[in-house]
Design the sequence.
């Protein structure tokens, strides 16, 4: 599915123009794309005689984007979008993949399309009130946004933020503003009032400790020797002024020296890049994905290994075809052993991190909370089928979210395991409403509860687990508890 969704992203700008008459909405591919767009903005400032002193720089973030997309709304939005624009990319409408779990590869295009469909409506409302001239640019890279607003009015800025936040209760935008400089991605964006243009320099997080590969590290020499070259390339591309460029070159020189790199090699690589054309580096197209005709031979790397190709040719008179390529691989290290590079296929057996001070399940003590009436206050729970007891290593109450809960019907001792990303309070309210309205589509609970001799008074609920790292973790653990507790009502779903 990810392979079919990704081509839509490059068309979002054109869709914004054609369908919503918004020509300044841009979904960024990477830092280079941002730098190219800043060049275009500088040209526009000059051509239209726009005074940069009237521009406000705004960066924003969508809080916990991936986990806050409602699954039903996400699928509905995506289906509607694809149905409307399938002609753009020849998307196969027969592809039935919407019921599957969202993996990491699918997340970026899925989130991009979902957010586009929501925020473009807010931008249309904003432009309808203030005109498109005010919104100089609206950039987004996944959950990070960058806005150039042709206004210094804080009320207008707040209204834009409120419009974005009102499009969907699950998407929360936070704003930071500046009249002088702001950072976005790995770029410092600076207003140069004298030249009436935007300048850029390298942004470095305060937490960056610059742990480049040490010169003595057991890696192929060409990798070690070209570290200064690749880092210099980045400096040339991002730094628009000579002053900021040489400032970063000096920092790079001292940082690599502290990692044991050769001073002569560092200077040679810096000077090699210093005369490069910045415009050419920024606009250089990416290498095309031509079919690789090489046959790779993978061997473990060791610093004492000679050049294998030369050794075989010179010492053993073996003529190796040019399409044979030797690829080195690193031996397993401590990082490989301790760090998981990708999510497991299933979170079924992965227990969430327990709380430091676990007090079990408790009432929230809010006098207006209805859930407090039904919640069980204890630090353990039990299967009514197996009589097995389990400890609750968490501190939870009615206001806790991202959890798995257990409902026990005290009259017949039937149990139901459920999960929610919302608070327990909200989820139980849905259950109670479904019981009163006899809504059988909610779960099997309402149908069971409207049978003879049952009443709402027989409900008892307890939170049994929380602290999930993502939605799939929570859903997999729900299945774990359904099976472990042998929940009778889940067996009927």
Sequence:
């Amino acid at each position: 599915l990810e392979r079919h969704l990704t081509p839509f992203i490059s068309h979002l700008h054109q869709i914004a123009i054609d369908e919503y008459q918004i020509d300044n909405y841009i979904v960024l591919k990477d830092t280079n794309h941002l730098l190219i767009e800043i060049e275009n903005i500088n040209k526009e400032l000059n051509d239209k005689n726009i005074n940069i002193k009237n521009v406000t720089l705004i960066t924003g973030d969508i809080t916990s984007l991936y986990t806050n997309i409602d699954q039903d709304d996400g699928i509905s939005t995506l289906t509607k979008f694809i149905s409307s624009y399938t002609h753009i990319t020849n998307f196969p409408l027969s592809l039935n993949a919407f019921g599957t779990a969202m993996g990491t590869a699918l997340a970026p295009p899925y989130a991009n399309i979902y957010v586009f469909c929501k925020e473009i409506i807010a931008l249309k409302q904003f432009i309808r009130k203030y005109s498109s001239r005010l919104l100089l640019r609206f950039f987004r890279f996944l959950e990070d946004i960058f806005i150039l607003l042709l206004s210094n009015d804080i009320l207008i800025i707040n209204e834009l933020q409120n419009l974005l936040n009102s499009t969907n209760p699950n998407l929360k935008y936070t704003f930071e503003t500046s009249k002088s400089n702001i950072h976005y991605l790995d770029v410092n964006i600076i207003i140069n009032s004298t030249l009436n243009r935007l300048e850029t320099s390298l942004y470095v997080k305060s937490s960056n400790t610059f742990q480049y590969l040490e010169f003595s590290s057991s890696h192929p020499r060409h990798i070690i020797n070209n570290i200064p070259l690749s880092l210099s390339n980045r400096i040339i591309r991002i730094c628009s002024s000579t002053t900021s460029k040489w400032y970063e070159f000096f920092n790079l020189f001292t940082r690599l020296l502290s990692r044991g790199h050769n001073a002569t090699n560092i200077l040679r690589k810096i000077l090699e890049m210093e005369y490069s054309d910045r415009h050419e580096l920024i606009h250089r197209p990416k290498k095309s994905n031509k079919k690789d005709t090489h046959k790779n031979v993978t061997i473990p790397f060791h610093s004492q290994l000679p050049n294998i190709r030369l050794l075989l040719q010179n010492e053993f008179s073996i003529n190796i075809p040019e399409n044979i390529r030797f690829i080195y691989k690193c031996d397993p290290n401590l990082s490989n052993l301790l760090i998981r590079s990708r999510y497991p296929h299933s979170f079924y057996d992965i227990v969430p991190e327990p709380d430091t001070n676990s007090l079990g399940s408790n009432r929230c003590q809010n006098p207006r909370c209805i859930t407090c009436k039904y919640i069980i206050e204890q630090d353990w729970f039990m299967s009514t089928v197996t009589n097995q007891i389990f400890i609750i290593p968490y501190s939870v109450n009615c206001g806790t979210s991202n959890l798995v809960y257990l409902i026990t019907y005290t009259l017949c001792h039937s149990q139901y395991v459920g999960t929610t990303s919302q608070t327990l309070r909200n989820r139980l309210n849905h259950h109670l409403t479904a019981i009163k309205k006899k809504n059988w589509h909610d779960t099997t609970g309402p149908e069971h509860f409207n049978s003879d001799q049952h009443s709402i008074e027989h409900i008892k609920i307890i939170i049994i687990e929380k602290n999930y790292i993502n939605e799939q973790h929570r859903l997999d653990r729900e299945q774990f508890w359904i099976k472990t507790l042998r929940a009778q009502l889940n067996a009927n779903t």
Q: What stands out?
A: The chain has four domains: 2-202, 221-283, 295-338, 360-492. The chain is about 40% helix and 20% strand. The longest strand covers residues 401-409. Residues 2-202 form one domain.
